[in-house]
Amino acid sequence: MKGELKMANNKKLLSATSKNYTKEEIESKQEIENKLHAFEKLDSNIKPPHYLDVMGKNEWNRVVPLLSDLPISNLDYHLIAQYCNWYSVWRKSWQDVKKNKATIVEENSSGIKIKKINPDFTVMEKATTQLMRISNELGMTISSRMRLVDVSEDEEDDPFA
Description:
Blueprint lengths: L22 H16 L15 H14 L9 H24 L2 E5 L5 E5 L1 H20 L3 H8 L12
Antiparallel strand pairs: 1-2
Helix pairs in contact: 2-3, 3-4
């Protein structure tokens, strides 16, 4: 329809699709997938960035070996570092919320006690949002991994299919 925006389709690996492609389409898609594997694969023994704190480095050491089965390359190094940094922020804010609860009581300028949202609760929410965004980018969620391997989803590339 006129003025309607069409959303770009999520790309799928050729092996994860059930669509019947022509020989030329298969060759074209295979060529694109081969380029994906041309990037230097992330070394599962790569050291975490120096700027991560201990909690971030521990998360790095936990997730990097798990990512080795996914098409993650050295280009994703800083994205993984961001994930680990946000994980550390989330854990620290979670610990504070666990200790002090989601709300805190403060005294206002008139001496009246008021209940407020714990600022660390807000930080924890922001960190959760960032963790989910980056997790999806890196294939660390079940739904993002399913997009790589699920052949049951219908594809709407061909309007006449």
